[in-house]
Amino acid sequence: MNQLSTNIGSLTLANPIVPASGTIGYGLELSEWMDLNELGAILTKSITLLPKKGNPQPRLFEIELGLMNSIGLENQGWPQFVSEIYPFISSLKTLKWVSIAGSAVSEYVELLSKLQDFQLDAVEINVSCPNVKKGGVPFCFHIPSLKELLKAVKKVNPVTKIIKISLESPPITDICHMIEDEGFSAVCIGNTVRGLVIDLEKQKPYFSNQIAGMSGPAIKPIALRAVWEVYQSGIKIPIIGCGGIRSVKDVLEFILAGATCVEVGSANLIDPTTMSTIIRDLMKYCEQNQLTLQKLIGLAHRKE
Amino acid sequence: MKHPVIGTVKNNRWLTPNIFELMVAFPDHSMEIKPGQFVELQCQGNHPVYLNRPFSPFMIRHQDWYFLIQNKGKGTNNLSHLQPGDKITMLSPLGKPFLPPTADNKILLIAGGVGLAPIYYYISHYLPLYPKLSITLLHGTSFEEDKIELPGYLDVLQYYFHADQSASQTNSNLFQYYQTLPKIDFDTAFVCGPLPMMRAFSRYFTKENRIHFVSLEMMMACGLGFCKGCSISTSDGMKSVCSDGPVFDGSELDWNLL
């Protein structure tokens, strides 16, 4: 066991650094900039059953210390997973995680069922997607919808399952306990934060979907607070922290607040070697301080 | 493996009231970038911006890279204030290049504003390799004062310049000017400039069955093919401007959706 290793369910990650879904495509382009086998796990962009064209332009807006996006899960659907994505990720030595998204419970179930034929280490289930049957309200904002989804997917495919929720899910601790009670392996906290931009020239919302997802260092304190609260509420399953991480200091804050591992998102867009640098710096930190990462998880909650 | 490189600003000067030329020395001599490809630049500056900014080089002499930049927003304004000695981080090379010429091709190059950067780099990169190339360069700007003096090759180019501020979202004055010119014989055309200008030329060339490529500009978050922020719809499905382009066969684009 090395100093950085950490566990999610029955999986052992060599280190706690995982790319946030959607920030490195499915990894092919990133492999020009870093050895993907350095990562604790590879995590693909969310796949959907059918191809999705995504949202119209504009899809991006830069803010102070971050960006807003309205990509709309553009992907080529299941056939591309079979023909391109799986062959690529299966050539890697690190853990292979796939993110899935859907607009109906049945879509998640079908995807999970199809994924049984592939050797994957974990599936991250993105529950921030609009539920078409409930008028587009995201699953994680409507507890009955989320419960229905969790109950439906837990029985399909014995693979390790991680539920990725929104930082704004109402009350986040209750939702995390529900995820734990349904028997899922881990919870990822969280996805982008919803925001709005008004185009002053047009005097209308800048994005065609009006609401867009905010990411980057601007949301880090929100994500850190959410991890802290969920850990403090006594949850037993591992927490994966995500939101505005761009340095080893950020990673250590999340681990100390209670995260078992972290996802690095928009920082990859600015420097594709960010995760490689963080892993190196984390190793240096643990060596210099002669400690293992596992000892740091949740340590900031100690009472003395 | 690619890696970000850190360069040192050697010079930064205004060429016109709106356009400056940033000259940066990068120590890595082995870095190669083909005409049409681009880089992402990041500098700290007084008001740092979160994302990098994409640019095509204008000229490369030994280890000195020249960028032609229009002062448009916070990011470019930061770059305009860089002083000699300041550091800048670059990701390079990114995107797909222009189709390389063959030895005696007749090439038509069309540039609008700072779209001149990749177009001039094409000239300075390929003319020394293929001295028999026959190149016509058409450059348009809104204002006469934005005319960029070409650093070289003027004597071997057929060169036209046109300034006209009457362009709009739906009309290209450079295209109208092109139609008044004597017929230009060419094998392949490369176009880089504002969208209405590229749309006008591309629709015309498509109708005339002429081989032509455009270099698209789109707001990008990464420039690396990671995020799908710069996707466009084409006859061959959704494409990322940063990694499938920025150079596209103009006849394959859906100009009504761009």
Computed CA radius of gyration of chain B, to the nearest angstrom:
18 Å
Enumerate the strands of the largest sheet of chain A in spatial order, edge to edge or round the barrel. Answer: 3-18-17-12-11-8-7-4
- Assigned CATH superfamily of the largest domain in chain B: Nucleotide-binding domain of ferredoxin-NADP reductase (FNR) module
State the strand order across the main sheet of chain B.
4-3-7-1-2-6-5
The CATH topology label of chain A is TIM Barrel
Distance between the termini of chain B: 34 Å
Our count of helices of chain B gives: 4
Shape of chain B: globular
Multimeric state: heterodimer
Helix and strand sequence of chain B = EEEEEEHEEHEEHEHEEEE
**Largest interface between protein chains, with number of residues from each side:** A-B, 36 and 29 residues
What is the average per-residue confidence, as pLDDT of chain A, rounded to a whole number? Answer: 95
Main β-sheet of chain B, in a few words? 7 strands, antiparallel
Count of discrete domains of chain A: 1
| Relative strand content of chain A | 15-25%
Specify the helix fraction band of chain B: 10-25%
Largest sheet geometry of chain A: 8 strands, parallel
